[in-house]
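Sample pair:
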Amino acid sequence: PDQDGDEVALQDLAGQISVLVFYPLDFSPVCTDQLNVYHEVLPELEAKGTKLYGVSVDSAFSHKAFQDHLGISIPLLADFHPKAEVSKTYGAYIEERGHNQRALVMIGPDLAVTWAHQSPSPLEIPGANLIFDALERQAA
C-alpha cells in the first residue's frame, strides 16, 4: 500500500513511465536528502510523463509520517508485508541488513523494466540526472 493505505499494484502503473525509487529506511539522513532531491525535480519529471514512487520496507504509517515531515508529494509504497516482496522481485533488498539498497527501476508504459541503477554504496544517492539521462536515451 501507499502512505495512505491505498493498494498500488503493478497494473496501476500501465500507460505511464514510472520510476521505483528503492531506499533503505524512512527518516534516515541520506534517505531524507534523496527524496528531497527528487521532490525538487518532480515537476520536470511529470512534464516528461514520468511518475516516481518511493519504496522501502517501512510501514504505511511510517511512510505517511515521513512524507508529512518532508512535505513531499511523491507516493511512498510500503513493501512491509510480506516483507520486501516487491523489493526482492527487483533485486533491491539486502537480506542481511533487513532493508533495501538504493536503486532506481524505470518501468515503461507496457510494464516492462526499461532501465535500472543500483548505487555502489548505501551512502551514495543516485542523482536525478540518472533518471533524466535514461529518459533521454529512451526517447532517442
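The chain has one domain: 15-139.
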